[in-house]
Amino acid sequence: MKKSAGILPYKTENGELYVYLGHLGGPFWKRKRRSWGIIKGEVEEGENDLEAAKREFFEETGKRLDGEFLDLGETKTSNKILHIFALQTDLDTDIRSNMVHMEYKGRILEFPEIDAAKWFTIEEAKEVILEAQKVFLERLQQLV
Asked: Is the model's pLDDT at 32 over the cut of 70?
């Protein structure tokens, strides 16, 4: 089974927990309510999960992260295992994502893998995050 790893940045302001999510790019996600997610990607051969998570975060946002990561553990989706780490930080939402190519309605389209980033309160995030990733928000709340 394939494995993906990602990073969930978080911060606290005025006693409220915020998380940093990426909006999935491309036409399929344009009008979907649950179209925000933890920035992540597949673990490549020879990488450990945290190295993969840092690489993917950089590829999809243009931002390098380092610091003391919290391990939020793993969960299994229908086709892969997700391993997520959290990092307390205060990033801006200006991103530079890598581009992906996909066939859509008979045409090859090019679009950013992540087309926006945004800080959400933890409660707002629970309403917009991909359902399979919601468990990581709950785990983060228990740890911080």
From this structure: no
